[in-house]
Amino acid sequence: MTRASDLAKLLTGGRTLGGTGEVIVKDIDTADGSSPKITLQTGDTDIASADVLGTIDFQAPDEGTGTDAILVAAGIEAVSEGDFSSSSNATSLVLKTGSSETAAEKVRLTSAGDVGIGTTSPSSYFSGATDLVISGSGDSGITVNSGTSGAGRLHFADGTSGDARYRGYVVYDHATDSMQF
Q1: CA gap 75, 93 in Å, rounded
Q2: 40-44: Cβ within 8 A, 24+ apart
Q3: CA gap 152, 173 in Å, rounded
Q4: Which of 86, 99, 156, 180 has its CA 20 to 30 A from that of 17?
Q5: Per-residue CA distances from 63 to 71, 97, 100 (Å)
Q6: What is the pLDDT of residues 45-70, one digit of tens each?
Q7: DSSP string covering 134-181, please?
């Protein structure tokens, strides 16, 4: 920021900075490892499950074609996973994108390090000990699983639920160093 009035607007709750819209934050500490930091803080004093702690949205509100073009096109959001307490601040990071809509959740990274892609359902999150499910319409769908038996599995599924969904698979068994089809 180059003008004191711009800084005053920002600090007192002003919503628009003048000039080109570029905000540069530079750490003037020259010590090795120093870096700038931006912190978004909520004023909420009782964080409950699904509360949004902060959001960064990307939008082109002055786009001349209007309608979908002026909606929020993408965003990043911090969402509480449960009620906060003296021993818990579990929070997910949500990535939102839009196509012909206001940006909606497409990817979620949980506090446990699990990643959900195209779903908000915890049963479809990926971590080192569970399935990674990638699915789409039609004939697509792949499940990669590293099970407790030490075998790596690649399943081809039809999108239905339960074991009936698996139509073919490849298994590599680390214990016997063998592949099964």
Answers
A1: 11
A2: 40/78
A3: 7
A4: 99
A5: 10, 17, 14
A6: 999 999 999 999 999 999 999 999 99
A7: E--STT--EEEEE-TTSEEEEEEE-S-SSGGGEEEEEEEETTTTEEE-
